[in-house]
From TrEMBL:
GO terms for cellular component: endoplasmic reticulum membrane. It holds the Pfam family p450. One of its GO terms (molecular function) is heme binding. Belongs to the cytochrome P450 family. It is found in: Endoplasmic reticulum membrane. This is Uncharacterized protein. Keywords: Endoplasmic reticulum, Heme, Iron, Membrane, Metal-binding, Monooxygenase, Oxidoreductase, Transmembrane, Transmembrane helix. Heme binds at C456. The chain crosses the membrane at residues 12-31. Its cofactor is heme. It comes from the Eukaryota.
Length: 509
């Protein structure tokens, strides 16, 4: 009886009290930690004025979905060098909107910001996009031969072949009063092109609907990563894992990885036999995947299977999705400006003569077309922002400083439209990139491929594909905008349109 009375008087055993105490202590330590981080951020940004923020939501409540780019431009005009951007109560970065500040950031050699990029690791692995330090340097050195002149030159006819397949599809779709949504078609074309060029794989993905699953998976992944950055509760791994979006992310990763795994397995099978490898060498130039699989450093050490997978996933994404964005917005700019479209067409006709396709030597002669491409990349950079995490303090040209550990985001979109750098920045003017104007421009005012040691390793590949796509498209079609379906640019991992990019196409004779 006494035992029962004791249990009633003290129903919770001592271990339960101990566990509750530990939980309370953990919560208090966590609160103290985030509070201290918040105070450190306040101190770091005290010399950088910025837009007023909500104590809990930061600036998120001020940025309506779909209106992000207009908001960053309005803040850039008010704070023309840099301003703090709060993604909640405890997370913030300095947003850079001026080339003089970008020069300091890109020259600093800091790693990518892990706050956002770490959520891409389950998808892209630790490839060039995410790596930093000695391993990044090793990968960069091993992969650089994959973008040599001798490797890129044979890609041009393969790119042209992929573009022609897309244009053949468009001929069957066009009507006088119905527009064509470009982005999905261009995405399939750039995927087809990179499969042929970088992986020597003729997949027929433009004509076989199965490949749409990979395109859709990449689209989902870029949206989901962007949304996770903005939605603070999803910063917690457990919360994200059990959420519907977490399930979508894992499924999209599975589909994307299945695609790249098949490409790697197929190549490994063909390279197992040394005689077969020698036949491949005689039949064609080594491509990106050959170089990836056979690359070795000075100690004879190559890339691990995990490293190869990460670089293939990274290049598959960056080589097709960012280029698809660039091509789609370029064709939209051509549609908006028929006078520049016609001048490019005339230049291309003069270069090609009676030929109906384009060759390597033609690319360097596309002077005016290249100026139009660069002006399109200025207005619509495929990667609208990049970020870095400072590994040492930084001092900007005006004397303001940031301490180690702070995150810095370079808003490429804002720098490209900064009125203190570009006259009439919203106007499409290819002459900004004429030879006589190049010397007048700040070297960090135009950043479509980032800058510094971590600039885009595949930028020449991308520029070649932009030129090929523009030339062959203008030889076959006149492009006009669809007034009923204007694009609405949104910044995800790449610059997309939430409404698609619709153009009216008319066969050109």
């Amino acid at each position: 009886m006494a035992f029962l009375l004791e249990k009633i008087a003290n129903p919770f055993p001592p271990l339960l009290y101990l566990a509750a105490g530990f939980c309370l202590l953990f919560v208090l330590l966590k609160v103290t930690q985030v509070y201290r981080k918040r105070q450190q951020l306040f101190k770091a940004f005290e010399s950088f004025p910025g837009p007023p923020r909500h104590w809990l939501h930061g600036h998120n409540s001020q940025v309506a979905q779909g209106d992000e780019l207009n908001k960053v431009l309005s803040w850039m005009k008010e704070y023309p060098y840099a301003y703090p951007r709060w993604l909640g109560a405890f997370m913030a970065s300095l947003v850079v909107t001026h080339p003089e500040y970008a020069k300091e950031v890109f020259g600093h050699g800091d790693p990518k910001t892990m706050t956002a990029y770490k959520w891409m690791i389950p998808w892209l692995g630790k490839g060039l996009l995410i790596l930093h330090g000695p391993k990044w340097f090793q990968h960069r050195r091993l992969l650089t031969p994959g973008f040599h002149y001798d490797v890129l030159k044979p890609y041009v006819p393969l790119m042209a072949e992929s573009v022609q397949v897309m244009l053949d599809k468009w001929e069957k779709l066009i009507t006088l009063d119905k527009s064509v949504e470009l982005f999905e078609h261009v995405s399939l074309m750039t995927l087809d092109s990179i499969m042929k060029c970088a992986f020597s794989c003729h997949s027929n993905c433009q004509t076989e609907s199965d490949s749409n699953s990979y395109i859709k998976a990449v689209y989902d992944l870029t949206y989901l990563v962007f949304h996770r950055v903005r939605f603070f509760p999803y910063h917690n791994d457990f919360m994200y894992q059990i959420s519907p979006q977490g399930h979508r992310f894992r499924e999209a990763c599975r589909i994307a990885h299945l695609h790249t795994d098949n490409v790697i397995k197929e190549r490994k099978r063909s390279l197992q036999d040394q005689q077969e490898f020698q036949k491949i060498q005689k039949k064609r130039c080594l491509d990106f995947l050959d170089i990836l699989l056979s690359a070795k450093d000075e100690n004879g050490v190559g890339l691990s299977d995990e490293d190869v997978r990460a670089e293939v996933d990274t290049f598959m994404f960056e080589g097709h999705d960012t280029t698809a964005s660039g091509i789609s917005w370029l064709l939209y700019c051509m549609a908006l400006h028929p006078e520049h479209q016609q001048r490019c067409r005339e230049e291309i006709k003069e270069i090609l003569g009676d030929r109906d396709t384009i060759q390597w030597d033609d690319l360097g002669r596309m002077t005016y077309s290249t100026m139009c491409i660069k002006e399109s990349l200025r207005l619509y950079p495929p990667v609208p922002a990049v970020s870095r995490q400072l590994i040492k303090p930084i001092t900007f040209f005006d004397g303001r400083t940031l301490p180690e550990g702070v995150e810095v985001g370079v808003s490429i979109y804002s720098i490209h439209r900064n009125p203190s750098i570009w006259q009439d920045p919203e106007v499409f003017d290819p002459m900004r990139f004429s030879p006589e104007n190049l010397s007048k421009r700040h070297p960090f005012a135009f950043l479509p491929f980032s800058a510094g040691p971590r600039n885009c390793i595949g930028q020449q590949f991308a520029m070649n594909e932009l030129k090929v796509a523009l030339a062959l498209t203008l030889l076959r079609f006149e492009l006009s905008p669809d007034p009923a379906n204007p694009p609405k640019a949104i910044p995800q991992v790449i610059l997309r349109s939430s409404t698609g990019i619709h153009l009216l196409l008319k066969k050109w004779h």
